[in-house]
């Protein structure tokens, strides 16, 4: 068992299933990077040092949304969307390896006062989670995106 853990860590760091040179070709279970020309709605999210405002948003299947995310807190924050299992993995990796760089297409990294945008097309009905996976942030800084049927 003690040999398996280093092997798993090596595999995790040698591959990045979400990273690709061309993010526009990437499609995940919960959608894909959206075409900015096809944005149907802008959703504003504010990060404070212990929560997202709002913590729940609703979109429609197939909709392309521009998230405008503002870090209104005093600390660096991230917005990562995905399944709760994937978000927990990301939070664990950031806790174990805080200096590793992350470049997922469905990730924003914001310094205090900074604002960034993420354009995403939601292709699957259901609930998608989002969170700040940074150490000490993950337990409180979470939210949900509800994707409703067209």
Explain this structure.
- The protein is α+β, with helices and mostly antiparallel strands and 150 residues long.
- The protein has a single domain, classed as Cupredoxins -  blue copper proteins (Immunoglobulin-like, Sandwich).
- It has helices at residues 4-14, 84-96; strands spanning 32-33, 41-48, 51-53, 56-60, 64-71, 77-82, 107-110, 115-121, 126-131, 142-148.
- Strands 1-8-5-2-3 form a five-stranded mixed beta sheet, with no helix packed on it. Strands 4-10-9-6-7 form a five-stranded mixed beta sheet, with helices on one face.
- Strand 2 and strand 3 (51-53) form a beta hairpin.
- Residues 1-24 have low confidence and may be disordered.
Short key terms for the protein model shown above:
single chain; 150 residues; alpha+beta; Immunoglobulin-like; five-stranded mixed sheet; 2 helices; 10 strands; 16% helix; globular; disordered N terminus
Gist of the model:
With 150 residues, this protein is of the alpha+beta class. It has two helices and ten strands; from the N terminus they run αββββββαββββ. A five-stranded mixed β-sheet has the order 1-8-5-2-3, with no helix packed on it. A five-stranded mixed β-sheet has the order 4-10-9-6-7, covered by helices on one side.
Uncertain residue ranges? 1-24
Helix content: 10-25%
**What sequence of helices (H) and strands (E) makes up the elements?**
HEEEEEEHEEEE
**Global mean pLDDT:** 85
Look at the helices and sheets and give the structural class.
alpha+beta
β-strand percent reads: 35-45%
Named CATH architecture: Sandwich
How many helices does DSSP assign? 2
Radius of gyration: 16 Å
Number of strands: 10
In CATH terms, the superfamily is Cupredoxins -  blue copper proteins
CATH topology: Immunoglobulin-like
The termini sit apart by: 47 Å
Q: What composes the largest sheet?
A: 5 strands, mixed
Count of folded domains: 1
The 3D shape can be described as: globular
Name of the CATH class: Mainly Beta
Strands side by side in the biggest sheet: 1-8-5-2-3
């Amino acid at each position: 068992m003690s040999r398996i853990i280093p092997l798993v860590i090596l595999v995790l760091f040698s591959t990045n299933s979400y990273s690709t040179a061309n993010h526009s070709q990437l499609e995940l279970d919960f959608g894909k990077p959206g075409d900015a020309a096809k944005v149907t709605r802008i959703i504003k999210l504010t990060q404070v040092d212990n929560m997202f405002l709002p913590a729940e948003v609703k979109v429609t299947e197939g909709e392309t949304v521009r998230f405008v995310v503002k870090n209104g807190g005093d600390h660096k924050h991230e917005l990562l969307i995905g399944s709760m299992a994937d978000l927990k993995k990301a939070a664990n990796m950031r806790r174990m390896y805080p200096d590793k760089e992350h470049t997922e297409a469905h990730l924003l990294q914001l310094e205090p006062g900074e604002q960034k945008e993420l354009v995403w097309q939601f292709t699957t009905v259901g609930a998608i989670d989002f969170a700040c996976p940074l150490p000490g942030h993950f337990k409180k800084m979470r939210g949900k995106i509800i994707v409703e049927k067209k």
